[in-house]
Write a structure and sequence with these properties.
With 444 residues, the chain is an alpha/beta fold. It contains twelve helices and 17 strands. The longest helix has 53 residues. The structure holds magnesium ion (MG). Magnesium ion (MG) binds next to strand 4.
């Protein structure tokens, strides 16, 4: 292995250069290159790996402390010995502050002092580099630690939001989305979007106002059990400093997958919950509310109407001659007729109207914000729409259905309750049947 050391002498004065080079060449195992300007010196260090530089401060293209600064910026790992003309302590010290390791007075240059300064400045530079590396390493470790703490805090907040039994799912997901940016060191520039496919979230999407489509993004699929349930996307509007060779650290990618996993678990819980609620509230065959749930939901509507003095009407409906369908076409055809009946009703009704199967072929419909006159129009439409329909039924000719309907407006001002009003609608329904069926009758 060669012990030859490479030195660069930057000196614009030809006389001074001759003197210094002569002394340098007396040293064993040294190769010296000579540059006459800062530009030439900067070019030389790109070509050759030097161990030390002897740097004159007064050059044609740079003067004084600026020379040291520019050189040290360009070659931060190279030992620099400044050559000064005068015994100028202030300038010498300033050179050291700018990044030089040693200085020599030109008048006192000899082989011995050059040798000493060369060894000293190289050693000092090595020590400086190891201190700098240790400090950089500590900063990196601190940064990583800070990132992990942010990620853990974020996961903790997300878990709390998702596991809170009081929060509706949409509010919990909004909280999750707003928490995610805090997991990164520059949270202010981060946008988040959560897309849910399973219909549990009204609208299906929760996002921060600064979400946009950029190439700086992390993404993870959300699964509820084994079913695809959505997607988490995190975006950075501008390019961000890369982590090593990658755009994102491994822990950042892991974090997004972990967030997706927790959101997926919450969605799965919500799915199960929804199914349980449906089993308890919905008629399995027709998907109308069951009697109990219809009474609960409509009871709340009646109370609300009473509180605000708003109208509310009820319809009682009975499919005409339903028993005949069962007897003549079989129970499967009867079931299809019941399903079709509810679908036809929904086609005529508004979203806020409430449909309940009260038992057998008997249904009730609650119309919030609707007085008698308008309720009779709705009832007429249901009756007419049904009478027009031909229902395809497996194993036979299409069915034609008719319905009889009794209509009552709730006597809100008299404090009439749901049961009493349903009773009046039922009496009107009875009358509609007695008067020949396929007709609408208003309650007294
Ligand atoms: Mg000079």
């Amino acid at each position: 292995m060669s012990n030859v050391q490479h030195a660069l002498l930057v000196e614009d004065s030809a006389t001074q250069a001759l003197l210094t080079l002569a002394e340098l060449e007396k040293l064993p195992d040294i190769e010296v290159e000579h540059a006459v300007s800062l530009a030439a010196a900067l070019e030389a260090i790109c070509r050759t790996r030097f161990d030390v530089v002897f740097l004159d401060l007064t050059l044609p293209d740079s003067v004084g402390e600026e020379t040291v600064k520019r050189f040290c910026d360009a070659a931060p790992d190279l030992a620099v010995v400044v050559l000064t003309n005068h015994d100028d302590d202030a300038q010498a010290l300033q050179s050291l502050e700018q990044g030089a390791q040693d200085y020599m007075l030109k008048g006192r240059i000899d082989a011995q002092s050059l040798s000493r300064s060369l060894r000293y400045s190289i050693q000092r530079k090595r020590a400086e580099i190891s201190v700098r590396d240790a400090r950089d390493e500590a900063l990196r470790a601190n940064r990583q630690l800070e990132r992990r703490m942010r990620q853990i805090n974020c996961l903790y907040g997300v878990s709390r939001a998702l596991e809170s039994p009081e929060l509706p799912l949409r509010v919990a997901m909004e909280e999750v989305v707003s928490l995610i940016p805090s997991a990164w060191l520059r949270p202010e520039s981060i946008g988040v979007r959560l897309t849910c496919l399973n219909g549990l979230l009204p609208g299906g999407i929760v996002e921060t106002s600064d979400f946009m489509d950029t190439q700086w993004r992390l993404e993870a699929q959300v699964f509820a059990g084994a079913r695809p349930a959505g997607r988490i996307e995190i975006c950075w509007p501008e390019s961000r400093p890369p982590e090593g060779d990658e755009a994102f650290a491994v822990s950042e990618r892991d974090l997004v997958r972990e967030l997706a996993r927790r959101v997926g678990q919450a969605l799965e819980r919500a799915c199960v919950q929804k199914e349980l609620v449906q089993l308890a509230t919905v008629d399995f065959l027709t998907a109308a509310y069951n009697r109990r749930h219809f009474m609960a939901v409509t009871g709340a509507e009646v109370q609300r109407a009473g509180r605000y003095g708003r109208p509310l009407s009820l319809l009682m409906l009975d499919i005409d001659h339903f028993k005949r369908i069962n007897d003549e076409r079989g129970h499967a055809a009867g079931d299809e007729a019941l399903k079709a009946f509810v679908i036809v009703c929904r086609e005529v009704l508004r979203d806020q109207d409430i449909v309940g199967r009260m038992g057998g072929e008997e249904f009730a419909i609650a119309l919030p914000e609707t007085a008698m006159e308008a309720a009779l129009v709705v009832a007429g439409r249901v009756r007419a729409h049904l009478a027009e329909m031909e229902l395809p039924v497996s194993g036979g000719a299409p069915l034609r259905l008719t319905t009889s309907i009794g209509v009552a407006e709730c006597k809100i001002r008299d404090g009439e309750g749901l049961e009493a009003c349903l009773g009046r609608a039922d009496a009107a329904l009875y009358r509609a049947k007695a008067l020949g069926r396929d007709r609408v009758e208003a309650a007294e």
